[in-house]
Structure formats: C-alpha cells, structure tokens
Amino acid sequence: MTDLKKRSMFKLATLSALAATALVGCGKTEPPPPPPAPAAAPVAAPAPKPEPLKIAFAYVGPVGDGGWTFAHDNGRKALEKEFGDKIVTSYVEKVPESADAERVLRDMVAQGNKLIFGTTFGYMEPMLKVANDNKPVKFEHATGYKTAENLRTYDSRTYEGAYMAGVIAGKMTKTNTLGVVGSVPIPEVVRNINSFTLGAQSVNPKVKTKVVWVGDWFNPPKETEAATALINGGADVLMQNTDSSAVLQTAEKMGKRAFGWDSDMTAYGPKAHLGSAVINWAPYYIKATRDALEGKWASGQTWWGVKEGAIDMVSVAADVPDDAKKKLDEVKAGLKDGSFSIWKGPIMNNAGKEVVAKDQVADDKFLGGINFFVKGVEGKVPGGDKK
C-alpha cells in the first residue's frame, strides 16, 4: 500500500471518529427500537341471538271475510309491527269448530309454536285437550270461559258496540222494526241482540227487533237469505252477529240501512252503511305477547271494551241526526270512564219478567249467562229461558 493511500484511509477514519464523537456530544443517539406490541386480547364471541317466539292463530273464517277473522288478522299484523324479529307469526284460516280444530292445534304445537290463539267459541274443548297435553305451550281462547294453567280466555265487549249501533238504529228507522241476523244462540250473541235493542229503545221506545238465526258464523248465502227475510218482514235497519259483509250488501241492494260488524265495512255498502261496530284486537294481542316474552304470562280471563280501546263505533254516516251523534258520544265517554252502564235496571225480558232490578247493574257473571230476550225482541232464544 502506498503512503498516499495509507494517509487517505487514516484521514477518513479520523473524520468518522470525530463525527461520531460530535453526535454523542449533541445527544443525537440512535433511538432504541420500539418494544413489541402487546398481544391483542381475545375478542369474546357475540352472544347467540334469542330464538324468536313462534305464535300461531287458528281462524274460523277466511282472512278476507271483512269482519271477525279480518279483525283478528289485523291484530296479528299489529303484533309483527310491534315486536319485529322477536316473534314469528303464522295462521291457519277456515278451521271448523270440529275435530279438525284439534288436529290443527296439535300441528301448530308440532311446528314449535309456543303461543297459540284460537279465535272462536267452538274451539274451547279442543283447546283444553291440546293444552293439557302440552304444558310448556301457552294457549289463548277467544270468547270461551274454560281455563287451565296454560290456557286463558279473552274477549271483547261487543255488546257495547251493539248498543251504540242501536242508538243510531233507533233514530234512523222509519218502520220502528229492526232486524238482526244471528249466528248461533250462545250468550255472546244473545247479549248483543239485547244490547242493540236496549240502545234503540233509549232513543225510541217504540222499536221492536226481529231475529233470524243462520246457525253458522260465516255463511254468506244464508246471511243474505236471512237479511232478505227480515227486510221482507218490515225491518228497515239491520245488524248482524255473523262474520261476513253479506247483511250490509243485502241492505244496499234492497234500499235499506245496516251496520258493519267487527270491522269497518263501509266499502261493502256505502249507501246502506250507518256505521261499523268494530273490534280492535291489537291491544290485547300485544299485551299477551309481551307477557309471554317477559315471562309474565299467567292463566286468567280478560274482557275488554271501549275503556281499553278494544271496541268502537266508526265511520258513522253523514245523515245520522246530530242528536244521535251527540248521544253516541255521551255513551262512549260514559263507557270509557265507567259512569255509564248499559245493563242497568229496570230491565224486563220479553215475557214481562224483571231480570235486572231498578238501579241494579248487571255483573259480568250475569252477562256471561244471558239466555233470554229483553222486552222488544220477538220470539224466544233457541234452547234458552223457557219462562
């Protein structure tokens, strides 16, 4: 190696050493490498989402009947809106009040439904049998009176709607003859016929009521035939305790007046329609479902009316007199706050016997067993009070 190269390398080494010394003196040390990142904590798996409550409905008629079953199905839809994905609902329509009802109910249980609603009186015995065999399942029976530890009953005070219809009918009749198409002669239906008549008599003591029975809840041809017979017999305002719109449609065709029942039936006979006595099942269905979801469900009996928002008279015709509308408002207000009672004596049956004494208010036990017609209703209840 030449002296020149040696001197150059020495000079370079000297300058490097001086530069390193200068950097240390100025505090410009090389930063230590960052510590390793701590291991990420394990992420807990999300809790499994609760299975939705499966709810089934057994309907006696078609959902498109425009009346009873249509009203129940509106209540089912209100449930879906209220609870969303917490529930899953289903229904079977046109389930007869026979052995078929038991088969359908057992199938609903087999499909995993834990809350089952049976929506007509004739399901009572089948529901008792199926409930007894399936204790973890909760059953709800509309209009019945028998309960079990996992079977309770619910009903609407339809007689309140019937009374309000009577108030309008009493003002609108020209012949003083009203007509009712009856389904089957159970206390519920008899109570509605009587309450309709009492409402009419409250504004027009001259009225009388004729009844034609069809022996079925949903039978449009028979309902049409019965309505025609009533009109031919002098009735100019009709009400029904059946599930279709046939009575209103018949009144429309024959130039008479009538009411919607269970649901708003205005569209089925706009010229004949005087108002609709409707049932809103949504409040009860929401309560029952919430009870089941929250573990608060217990057997018992529920009977709701105007006070609870379950019964109303809607779409009252424009030509109904103002005094009738005022009376209607007073009745609604009184039923809501408890200051008015439909079944307050003195009330006589159509044989002249006092059935509710003066100033006495009939209790629910009495109302639940009515088997007679009040004064002003023609004929006798089939299989009812013979006195």
Explain this structure to me?
This protein has a six-stranded parallel β-sheet with strand order 2-1-3-4-5-11, sandwiched between helices. The N and C termini lie far apart (145 Å). It has eleven helices and 14 strands. The chain has two domains: 53-157 and 282-307, Response regulator (Rossmann fold); 158-278 and 311-367, Rossmann fold. With 387 residues, it is an alpha/beta fold. Helix 5 packs parallel to helix 6 (187-201). The longest helix is centred in the first third of the chain and has 23 residues, at 3-25. 37% of the residues lie in helices and 18% in strands. Residues 1-29 have low confidence and may be disordered.
Give a brief rundown of this model.
By secondary structure, the chain is of the alpha/beta class.
Blueprint (SSEs and pairs):
Elements: H1 3-25, E1 53-58, H2 68-83, E2 87-92, H3 99-110, E3 115-118, H4 124-133, E4 138-142, E5 151-156, H5 158-172, E6 177-182, H6 187-201, E7 208-213, H7 220-232, E8 237-240, H8 246-253, E9 257-262, E10 273-279, H9 282-293, E11 301-304, E12 311-314, H10 322-337, E13 347-348, E14 354-356, H11 364-367
Parallel strand pairs: 1-2, 1-3, 3-4, 4-5, 5-11, 6-7, 6-8, 8-9, 9-10
Antiparallel strand pairs: 10-12, 13-14
Helix pairs in contact: 2-9, 3-4, 5-6, 5-10, 7-8
What keyword list fits this structure?
387 residues; alpha/beta; Rossmann fold; 2 domains; 6-stranded parallel sheet; 6-stranded mixed sheet; elongated; disordered N terminus
In CATH terms, the superfamily of the largest domain is: Response regulator
CATH architecture of the largest domain, by name, is 3-Layer(aba) Sandwich
* Class inferred from helices and paired strands: alpha/beta
Taken in chain order, the helices and strands follow as HEHEHEHEEHEHEHEHEEHEEHEEH
CATH topology of the largest domain: Rossmann fold
Number of spatially distinct domains: 2
Poorly predicted sequence stretches spanning 5 or more consecutive residues = 1-29
CATH class membership of the largest domain: Alpha Beta
Spatial shape: elongated
Strand order of the largest sheet: 2-1-3-4-5-11
* Proportion in β-strands: 15-25%
**First and last CA, distance:** 145 Å
Mean pLDDT over the residues: 91
Using only CA atoms, what is the Rg? 36 Å
